[in-house]
Design brief:
This protein is of the alpha/beta class and 341 residues long. It has 13 helices and 13 strands.
């Protein structure tokens, strides 16, 4: 069953519209016939979305005047603005983007009498490391880094508003991948170059979801009557081991994952060395402690609630999603073109 549509006379505001998930959401909403408004810092970065028909409001999400202007007449808000965890970024940047900006947007949204729905994009990362047993939406918040901690704090502000009757929904995406994503590009490249090996002997489980499926779930949260006041984990139907994820990427790339593992002590030493590099080159390091954390700890979630309450089931299997992602990377020059047979 497809998501219900927004009406063409209904103003839908999207923050974070030029990001990976946000740009896909805008394209979906425009194709559904919605009147989409986006709040962006750069009109140039939003040019392709404006050409599709999105109405552009230029301004910072931390600027009160810009936020008021963007919210005017909006019936639905999709709040996706955020900052991914990157080496060298200051803690204050995460707090300003995730906590301060969310509270500002929330405060002005509560003054919009016409507003029907506020969809807040959080992250499953607020639960920290789950282990191999899937965590549901009621699990305690246990963030492990500044990204997760500030996302958790923003969630608490949304929950406080919900307790007062504010019509919000919290969406926690799993590991979102697909065309347009550059956050996982390094992982795809390491598999392509034959450099990936699992670290340690214990299986590590992750919970990926293809971007089109993630967008469908977000739209459902913006339209389904039963979504108001709820929090949903949105991820694929089953967790995937890191080794199986690498194998699916290798299969899509036409390569193989070499056998063997990397000893954990050796990986820790490389990660510590990576963290000592200057911030401007740290992203190119083979390992940092945050990447080591991603590669050595399981994070899996129960997705039963989203199926039960908003009738959401992902439509894209892992092999299909990986094939589409690799094709996009090749088309845009991020991976070498497949050699002719």
């Amino acid at each position: 069953m497809s998501s219900p549509l927004h009406r063409s006379d209904e103003v839908v505001l999207v923050t974070g519209a030029t990001g990976f998930l946000g740009s896909h959401l805008v394209k979906r909403l425009v194709s559904d016939g919605a009147r989409v408004r986006i709040l962006v810092r750069s009109a140039n970065r939003a040019r392709s979305l404006a050409e599709l028909g999105a109405e552009v409001t230029v301004g910072d999400i931390q600027d009160e005047t810009a936020v008021r202007s963007a919210l005017r007449g909006a019936l639905t808000v999709y709040h996706l603005a955020g900052k991914l965890l990157v080496p060298g970024a200051r803690d204050a940047e995460y707090r300003a983007t995730h906590v301060d900006a969310t509270k500002l947007l929330l405060a002005h949204s509560r003054g919009q009498s016409q507003l029907r729905r506020f969809v807040h994009c959080s992250t499953t990362g607020v639960l920290g490391v789950t282990g191999a047993e899937p965590a549901d939406e009621g699990a305690p918040l246990r963030p492990t880094n500044i990204y997760e901690a500030t996302k958790a704090e923003a969630e608490l502000a949304i929950r406080d508003a919900m307790r007062s009757g504010f019509p919000a929904v919290i969406v926690r995406p799993g590991l979102v991948y697909g065309p347009g994503d550059l956050h996982l590009l390094g992982f795809f490249r390491s598999v392509f170059r034959g450099r990936f090996r699992p670290i340690g002997r214990r299986p590590v489980w992750l919970h990926p979801i293809y971007v089109d499926d993630m967008v469908d779930a977000v739209v459902r949260c913006g339209r389904h009557p039963a979504a108001v006041g709820e929090c949903f984990h949105i991820a694929g139907p089953e967790p995937v081991s890191l080794a199986a994820l690498a194998a699916a990427i290798a299969n899509a790339e036409g390569t193989d994952v070499p056998s063997g593992t990397i000893p954990l002590p050796a990986a820790r030493a490389v990660a510590i060395a990576g963290d000592l590099l200057p911030s401007n080159v740290r992203r190119a390091a083979p390992l940092t402690r945050s990447r080591l954390d991603f590669l050595t700890h399981s994070r899996v979630y129960s997705v039963a609630k989203a199926k039960r309450v908003i009738d959401f089931t992902p439509a894209t299997d892992l092999s299909t999603g990986m094939a589409r992602t690799v094709a996009w990377y090749r088309e845009h020059g991020y991976l070498p073109a497949r050699s002719a047979a």
